[in-house]
Design goal:
about 40% strand; mainly beta; about 0% helix
């Protein structure tokens, strides 16, 4: 996987925190958790560079941007259409008004 921070380095697994994998870029040292994608069910979701001041995650397989929900902090809002977020998969809040920018 390529680093979402510097876009040049390659991510490598460095440790586990509980059941979560922690990956680190060989080039810049940026660390990232990799999560299971609820869409393709593969362990391929990683943190990317922020967009519009929001923390952004994306599945390297599906190429779908995901943002932590600002309302509940437990669910995800997915960007299936450019600039349009679907409601949170946990609380149902949000949507178009929460555009990442």
């Amino acid at each position: 996987m390529r680093c979402g921070h510097c876009q040049r380095g390659v991510m490598r697994l460095v440790r586990f925190e509980g059941s979560r994998e922690i990956w680190q870029c060989r080039q810049c040292g940026e660390e990232s958790r990799v999560l299971d994608c609820p869409l393709c069910e593969q362990r391929a979701v990683r943190r990317c560079s922020p967009r519009g001041g929001r923390e952004r995650w994306a599945c390297s397989r599906c190429q779908v941007n995901q943002y932590p929900c600002r309302h509940c902090g437990r669910g995800w809002q997915r960007e299936f259409r450019e600039g349009r977020l679907d409601p949170c998969d946990h609380c149902g809040a949000g949507g178009v008004a929460d555009r990442p920018g």
